[in-house]
Design brief:
3 domains; 430 residues; 7-stranded parallel beta sheet; 6-stranded parallel beta sheet; alpha/beta; globular; Rossmann fold
Amino acid sequence: MRVLMFGWEFPPHISGGLGTASYGLTKGMATLDDLEVIFVVPKAFGDEDQTMVRLVGANQVQMSFRKVYYKGFRRSLETIEVTSRIVPYTDPEDFWRMTRSEVAGYKMFVQTDSKGLVDFSGKYEGNLMDEINKYAIVASVIAEENEFDIIHAHDWLAYPAGIAAMEVSGKPLVIHVHATDFDRSGGSVNPDVYRIEKNGMDAASKIITVSNLTRDIVIHKYFINPDKVETVYNAVEPVKISERLMIKKGFDEKVVTFLGRITMQKGPEYFIEAAYKVLQVMDNVRFVMAGSGDIMERMMRRAAALKITDRFHFTGFLKGVDVFSLLDMSDVYIMPSVSEPFGISPLEAMQSNVPVIISKQSGVAEILTHAVKTDFWDIDAMADSIYGILNYPALANMFIKKGKEEVIRFKWDNSARHVKEIYTRVIENK
């Protein structure tokens, strides 16, 4: 079975939750017999790990490019074919009537270089909608030039690419919902993003969600038949001791860590308020907020207003070994997310022997037993949990021991096996 998979992130250049999950799942798939994955990203940099997957960058795919011989010219002319919505001999009203059906599709101009290649930033910057549309155009070319049995599109940015590949090939589409705009926006959804998400869900033969929390959103907010939606939980990539620096703190104070994007969705303000409460009764503890995001400056101002900056540290964005170095120095990890489709970082903390506190409003809370769970808004309960773990070694050791035993079960091999079962059912029912 060959899978044509579209994503937006792939380590090491983009290593957010989406990239981590995509990489982990493809590694798990590589352990299964009779399963081959072609993984497409908007921009490939050339240094990605391709031992487990064939990686294709949309920026490396040549569009329609050929030589045409015209009478009267000594040399052949190299031309690039693109579709055009230019209609001759028509007035504006007729033009819009004739072409409006194409506005939401993939028939648009695409700028290429002299080799017929389309440029992508590969990030979340600039005109993102334009990048998504270009990605869909190139996806249709990739689908024409490759043999495969099923299409798999990760998250909303890749849904139009998946649809384009489906329309060209006639192969079934599976979409993977890692998050919805209801999670990212706090409920104030972007209508353009919602439309893309809804179109992907309607077009797909099957929808995979990373938690039952997300499954319920898909069913009730996007009005999708429950039979079409199936949960496959994420997992965690084991980290070898040899790959870790194992840095020691170098000081006696306890360390409480927040690790993630500093956005409203992740609940950083609740972490700061809980830190303030803990610091009223303890002075041998430091709080670390690792990450970056659109409300980082606001969080800095709030920490300053509470006069806790001598005990509160902002590291900026961390990745790779730096993440695990911070976890090695941490005594408590906390994820106070307002809306978290899953959340891989608590699993990484547990495998690093760190007790975790997570919000009940997270997908990972569905599968974890040996973690403290509080409502994201309940800063008193959060502060009490932090205080208890820091001051009662027996409690901390129990969470460390049981958590380590529990997290071993969450392997990408198991997630991959579940996804393959879904593929088989979709292909058989086509």
